[in-house]
Each structure stands twice: as structure tokens, then as C-alpha cells.
Amino acid sequence: MTTTTINTAKVLRRRRIRQEWGRPWLYLPLTGLLLLMITPFLWMLSSAFKSEGDIRRVPPDLIPTSPTLANFRELFSSLDFTTMFANSVIVALAVTAGNLIFCSMLGYALAKLEFRGQRAVFGLVMATLMVPGLVTFVPLYVLVANMKLTGSLLGLILPFLATPFGVFLMRQFISTLPDELIDAARVDGCRELAIFWKIILPLTRPALATLGIITFLGSWNNFLWPLVVAQNESQYTLPVGLALASSGQDFTRFGVLLAGAVVVLLPVTIVFLLFQRHFVAGIATTGLK
Amino acid sequence: MPTTTLAGQGAQEGDTVGKRPAATPSLRRSTARGRQTRAAWVLAAPFLALFLAFMLLPVVWSTLMSLTDTQSADLRTPLNVSFTGFDNYVRLFEDPQFFTALRNTGVFVLVALPLTLAAGLAAAVALDSGIRRFRALFRVGFYLPVITSIVAVAVVWKTLLEPHAGLVNTVLAWFGIDGPAWLADTRFALPVMIVLAVWRNLGTVMIIMLAGLQSVPQSLMEAAELDGAGAWQRFWRVTFPLLRPALLLTAVTTGIGYLQFFDEPFVMTDGGPLDSTLSATLYAYKQFGNGNYGIASAAGYVVFVLIIALTVLQFRMLRDKD
Question: S-S: B297 plus which of A70, A260, B66, B157, CB 3.0-4.6 Å?
Fold first, then answer.
């Protein structure tokens, strides 16, 4: 009994000392790893504001000695980054809105309603979660081409409006809501669709935030599909524009390309920092991103 | 109206399910069931319409395509092709380039998957129980590559790895090391892809592990500490077994992603030099680019089969030890 008390006191004291900083030696390897992880970003950010000569100076300066906006000016004047930026925003917002609406509707039906065909629908949707994107890529392209959608932004939006991942996430979340809520509403004479709109949807806000952010980031960074489907500059999204610029002969011009990378990265970084909590929660619950 | 009486009872007794009147329960349940079915299909319809058109149809279509001689010339008349059985699969396995692609994919998964899991787990444990200050800074820093567009990644890393002016070789030169032309050297190109993949995916593993670590009961750790277990023992005997389900889930999802290894070589090397970074999915994409839609679909299905095999294997490992 006495030894336990002494031990407990000792443990508590040690814990109090650690409470402030944890294990000091761990900061060294972690800082090393952090530097490895973010050096590419520091290099990108710093070089985007340098002239071509300064970028190639050895050793490189972290803070540009004579900062310039020339790279950004050139980006927006020669490459029409304004249109691409607008396209990226339109496509990402439309895809996000579609997923929020359609996935929560089906997610609720699968989680809380009993209906014939329920298991078949769920099985079918979940089975496609594992199908590699490249398997459907070719027929999807043929389909969209035959629908004459390759010349419009719709071709970039329609195929991504309803994704199995979203259904999975929403169904998982809605399953955790108490059944009594729905039963009580039914007893009160609330109609089935009204239960969904008025009672369930407001309660799914955390899951909707998660799904919204994941979908937005995914759409913003989506690259292969728009690269193949977009036919001219008026439909390019930011990643497509940047990819084409970097594969051209211009690749020697580091500054402009790195400025482009900054423009692509900035919006998602802001979205991520603002909604970090929901984003992290969603990944942690589904194991997917 | 029966609903009014029911509502009254529910409000009085606080329990609506168990206290329903015994009269005509089956009739009421069946109409309730009918209402639910109708509502469910109304809710499901928009999703299912899009899903059938843009997911299920392409899946079925690509299965058929992999069994026909579809070429890009057949784009406008997709039904006007001949059925060739498993010819595409036979041709696929006769192509040495496809074997190179499969081998590269295998090496990539076998090396990058354990590295990513170990690095992500280590980072999560260090952030969860190792340090107290600047946690958010480390977390955001480790996670930043995950949300970065692969195109931006490619631009930045290509400039970093540039043989003459790139930062990597500049730093190596300070130590008297003559850095190679990373992406143009068959010995280094695939290892660079692996490093890049670990860099991009470590953050995802870390986040899932952090969530898993938070579910480890504090009382268990304190009990182990009082019993005299050191930090190392506490991790392997208490934390690790509890993390196993989360770890295996991460292994499955990361493994599925890695088997489809595509982005890095597509934007960095285009599969080169000399096919040293050609992956199975990149091979399929190139066949698509060449207009061989049948072969491209068949290659996609080979990857799909590998994904299912890996998933089954990993879930079996999960079940055995439960």
C-alpha cells in the first residue's frame, strides 16, 4: 500500500515535469523530419518570388534578396491562369455540392430506412469502391465523348457528382444517429422525406463538412481526367494548365512554374487550415482520403 | 387518425416503439414499410441514376471491352467490334513490357508500403505521447504533402532534383558528393518515386494512427507504467496490439493506392528511363493513348485482381489474430 502511494507520487511528479515539453530529445528527429517534409514547399515559396538568376544562385537564399512579382505577372498574362482558376473553382464547387446532396440522400436511405433492394444497392455501391479508376477510365471517356461533353465543363463535373466514397461516409455517420429520433418524428406524423430534410440533415453537419472538404480537395487536385477530356484552354483547370506549361519547352523557367505551383496550392492550403478538424476527423473514421 | 393517438401515447409514456396498440399491427407495419420504400427510392434515385451512367455502365463496358478488339477507331461505333475472348489477356502476358511494369509495381508496393506505415506510425506516436509543444505545427507540416496537387509536386521536385542547378545536388556538392541525374538514371528513378510516395502519404497514415492512439485508454497505460513497464514495452505490449485494426485498415487502403501507382511516374518520368518507372496502371494508360482500348481495359482488370488479392490477404491477417 505504502509503496504504491510512493510510486504513484513519483510517477505523478515525473509526469508534471514532462507535461510542459514531453520528451525534449524527440524534438531533434521530429524537426529533422519536418524540414525534410517542408523543404520542397519552402523552396517553392521562396523561388516563386525570385528572378531566374537568383533561383540558381549557390547557395540558395531562403528569403529572396530582391523579391519580385514578375513570375506571377507572367503567369496570369501569358497562360490565362485567371480562366483556369475560375474553371477549377466552378468544377470543384459543383462536384462538392452534388456529392453533399446525393450522397447524404442515399446514405440516409441505406442507414435508416428499410426497403426492398437495400442490400443489393449497398453491395453494388460498395463493390465499386475497390475498382481502380483506370478500369473505368476508357469507357467513361468513350461515353463522355459520345455525349459530346468533352467540349464543356460538364464533362469534368458529371462523372464525379455521385461517388461511392461519399455514400460510405454518410451512411456510416447517419447509422450512429439514434433511431428513436426518427421513430418519434414518424409518430408525430412527419412525412418520410421531411424527416430527412428537417431532422437528419441538420444533424449530419459534421459529416457533411468532412465530405465537403475531402471532395473539394479531391476535385481541385484532380488532374488526369481533365487533362484528357478538356479540349482547349477555355476548359483547362489549374493543374492541367500547370502540367502543360511544365511539359513544354518552358521547363527551364523555374520561377514561373513554381509561382504556378503556389497558385495551385494556396486555395487548398487555406481550406485545409480552416477546416482541419473536420478533414482529420473524416480521414480518421473512414481510413480514406 | 391513428397517428394522432399514437403521438399522444408517445408523449405520455416516452416510448413509442414498445407501446404500440396490438390492433392491426401487421397492416400498419406494411403501410409504414411501403412509405419507407417509396421514400428510400426517391432519395436513392438521383445518386443511382448518376452511378449507373458514370460508374456501373463503364465497369460493365470495360469488362466487355477487355474481351474485344476495341480500338480508338471504334469510338463512334462501340458495338461494332468483335469478341476475341481472352486474347487481350494472352497478349498482355506475352508482352515483356507488361512484366517490367508488374515488377516495378511489385517493388514499389513492397518497399514503399512498409516504409510509409512505419514512418507514419512513428510520427503519430511521437506527436501523441512524445512531445507537448508545437504539435499542430508538426502535424500540419507532415500533412501538407497529402493535400498538394501532384502537378505542383512534380514541378517542385523536378526543379529540386534537376542535375545541375537543383537544390538536392547543390547540397550534396557541399559534402563533396557528385549527385546523379536522379530522374534520368535507371538505378535512381524508381527509388526516387518511392521516396516521393512515402513523402506524399506519410501524413495520411499519421492522421489515422493519431485517431487510433487517442482511443487507447489512459488507464491502461497508467496501469502498465505502475507495473514497471518501460516506454518501449508499453508501446509494443499495450499500444501496438490495440492499434492493429487501425494499422491494418491503413495498410489495406494505402496498399490499394500503391498498387495503382501512377501519379508519380506519370508526371515525373513518363515511365522512363528505359521503363524503369513504368507501372502497371501507367502501362494501361499508355495502351489507351495508343488506341488499344481492349488491352488497356485488360491491364486495368489485372490490377483490379491484384487489389482484391492484396485486400483479402490483409483482411485474413486481421481476422486470424483477433
Answer: B66
Q: Which B positions 67-126 lie with beta carbon below 8 A of chain A?
A: 75-76, 78, 123, 126
- Is B178 inside any structural domain? no
- Looking at the predicted complex, does its ipTM rise above 0.90? no
| Count of C-beta atoms within a 10 Å radius of residue A128 | 17
Instruction: Look up the CATH number of the domain holding residue B276.
Output: 1.10.3720.10
More confident residue, A279 or B161: B161
Q: What is the pLDDT of residue B14?
A: 40
Q: How many domains does chain B have?
A: 1
Q: Where in the sequence is the domain holding B124, given as residue range(s)?
A: 95-150+188-318
A97/B contact by beta carbon, under 8 A: no
Domain-located, residue B36? no
Is residue B321 over pLDDT 60? no
- Chain B contact for A180, CB < 8 A? yes
CA distance B110 to B255: 9
> Which residues of A are less than 8 Å from B144 in CB distance?
37-38, 41, 269
Task: State the residue for C-alpha cell 450512429.
Answer: A176
Q: Is A18 on the interface with B (CB under 8 A)?
A: yes
Phi/psi class of residue B198: alpha, beta or left (left: φ > 0; alpha: ψ in -120 to 50)? alpha
Helices (H), B52-149: 57-66, 87-94, 96-125, 135-147
Tell me what the mean pLDDT of segment B257-276 comes to. 85
Report the percent of chain A where pLDDT is more than 70: 89
List pLDDT tens digits, range B64-115. Answer: 888 877 776 666 666 667 777 778 888 888 889 999 999 999 999 999 999 9
- CB–CB of B76 and A265 under 8 A? no
In this structure, what C-alpha cell is assigned to residue B2? 391513428
CA–CA dist B161, A25 (Å, integer): 31
> Do residue A265 and residue B6 have CB atoms under 8 angstroms apart?
no
Q: Does A32 touch chain B (CB under 8 A)?
A: no
Give the nearest chain A residue to B196 (CA atoms): A37
